[in-house]
Specification:
Blueprint (H helix, E strand, L loop, with lengths): L3 H9 L3 H25 L3 E4 L5 H14 L5 E4 L6 H19 L6
Parallel strand pairs: 1-2
Helix pairs in contact: 1-2, 2-3
Amino acid sequence: MRTAQGVYRAARDGNRVARRVVRTQARQLALAIAAAASVLDPQLIVVSGTVDETVAGPMREALRSVIAAGPALVTGHLGEEAVLLGAIAAALPQARERVFAGSRRP
């Protein structure tokens, strides 16, 4: 179990140590989300990267124990490439503007 996916897989397969690690990680992530949610008041939290339903389920439970009427928590579908794809999406409009600014005709 050298990767998060390996730990999640072991937890799904019933490994007690992996399940404990997942519960601990889920609780820590839920506390961080609760702190941010108390300031930002979002309606939806999307977690992505290596986090899958193995962790998201316990995160939802831990989040509900801290914030009774907290935001919905769902897993994203972009996986480990979420940050990269978000950065590209954020930079693309500015890149288009720079590339095509000189090619406009009056």
